[in-house]
Amino acid sequence: MTDLLTVEDHRARVLAAVAVLPAESVPLSEASGRTLAEPVLAAHDLPGFDNSAMDGFAVHFADFEGTDAENPATLRVIADLPAGSSDDPSIGEGEAVRIMTGAPVPADADAIVPFEDTAGGLADSLGTVTVLRAPAASGVFIRRRGGDTRAGDVVLSPGERLGPFALGAAAAAGVDTVAVTRRPRVAVVSTGSELVAPGRTPGRGQTPDSNATLLAAVVARADADVELVDRIGDDPAGIDSVLARAARADVVVFTGGVSAGAYEPVRLALADRIAFDKVAMQPGKPQAFGVLDDGRLVFGLPGNPVSVAVSFEVFVRPALLALQGRASVDRPLARLTASESWTTPLGRRQYLPAVVDLVAGTVRPATAGGSGSHLAASLARAEAFAIVPAEVSTVSVGDPLDVMLIP
Ligand code: AMP
Ligand code: MG
Question: Is residue 264 a contact partner of residue 294, using CB atoms and an 8 Å limit?
């Protein structure tokens, strides 16, 4: 048991081998899911000018002194400002300007009266306006220049993923091109002479290759490009030919063939090039990782489908995000309470496929059969991994656990 690496040690080794991929400049329309390499600075103030927050009238606050519900102010409407207008009409005492949301507030006005607070509303609003509810204070319903961000301010920081909100923020800040890191190119290779393509009826001794499909999908969701998906048998000679086919990849992920059996092609072919270790986790104990002479990162994950899913989340996904220069490479954790009990192997940290109820704050196993790493179909029910510390052997109802959420 002492020869087991901790999850942290193995993960630290992996992350230490990662160098951030080079940056390139792309238009916002192509930047979705990319990682910023340089900050996005606001090109101008936002809002760019004081503007109206309501459809209504731009007024002088002072004109409402001494008015009340019995003696309302009636103002002469001397101009009309739709959104997009650049006019700045001067407003005398007792005058108002009709203004729409987003239009620049005239320099002479210091408050906005919404239509809702006038006698006539939108009807006849270009003649005079009788204000039933005077503005509460000077400045009401005016969105101030620079109230969101100032020219030169940092709107987005390096390491941020450009999701829809971030992309919208960059556009609002007047930016149309961003510096982002290149997407990692990943080759996914299943090993195993028993594997057949999904959809083919497996004969005795055969099983569908589900790892390749799973890995291609999770790689894409980690904002990386799937360069190659391949499947080879257990002849170690196949490893170097597939590495040649994956020449353009930054990362090669093998599944299967890394443990202690007699026919382990990844181990047999790569033992002198990458490290083969045992990690104190369940599932996922046998792990291989290294950097080839040409700089490609190589992962050898154990073949069981649940082991693949867990190993990807714990080691490969963080590496793919680190390659992109992502500031945070971790899944969100929730602290939830077990609503069922189960047993786990002492001395290894368990990552149990789990179902969560975030409203109730509870977690339970996704698979009735417990932690079987071969339960490829049952894995579909998992939406999280419950993390059980190595020193725990029984999880009881009511125990608090960290849970890795896989949204
Ligand atoms: P291995 O790590 O090669 O000893 O494989 C462990 C178990 O995982 C065996 O039962 C394999 O048949 C199964 N397995 C390996 N690769 C795959 C795959 N690509 N898809 C589904 N099951 C697999
Ligand atoms: Mg195998």
Answer: no
Give the position, in ligand 1's atom list, of the atom nearest the Cα of 258: 2
Is the shortest distance between the CB of 304 and ligand 1 below 6 Å?
Answer: yes
Query: Which ligand 1 atom is the nearest neighbour of the CA of 210?
Result: 20
| 287 pocket-lining for ligand 1 (C-beta < 6 Å) | no
Rounded to two decimals, the pTM is: 0.95
Instruction: Let me know whether 365 and 310 are in one domain.
Output: no
pLDDT digits (tens, 9 = 90+) for 204-233: 999 999 999 999 999 999 999 999 999 999
SS3 at position 101:
coil
pLDDT digits (tens, 9 = 90+) for 295-350: 999 999 999 999 999 999 999 999 999 999 999 999 999 999 999 999 999 999 99
Residue 208 sits in the same domain as residue 316: yes
Q: Which of 159, 183, 161 is nearest to 248 (CA)?
A: 183
User: Has residue 1 been placed in a domain?
Assistant: no
Q: Do 248 and 310 belong together in one domain?
A: yes
Residue finishing a domain among 291, 323, 355: 323
Residue 284 and residue 260 share a domain: yes
Buried b (16+ CB within 10 A) or exposed e, 12-25: ebbeeebebbebee
- Do residues 218 and 361 share a domain? no
Question: Containing domain of residue 101, as a range?
Answer: 51-143
DSSP codes of every residue in 392-405: --EE-TT-EEEEEE
> Using CA atoms, how far apart are residues 50 and 42, in angstroms rounded to an integer?
17
Give the C-alpha distances (Å, rounded to integers) separating 43 from 2, 83, 158: 57, 21, 17
Query: What's the token pair of residue 376?
Result: 């490829």
* Torsion 248-223-191-274 (CA) sign: positive
Whose structure tokens read 């090669």?
A: 252
Give the distance (Å) from ligand 1 centre to CA of residue 216: 16
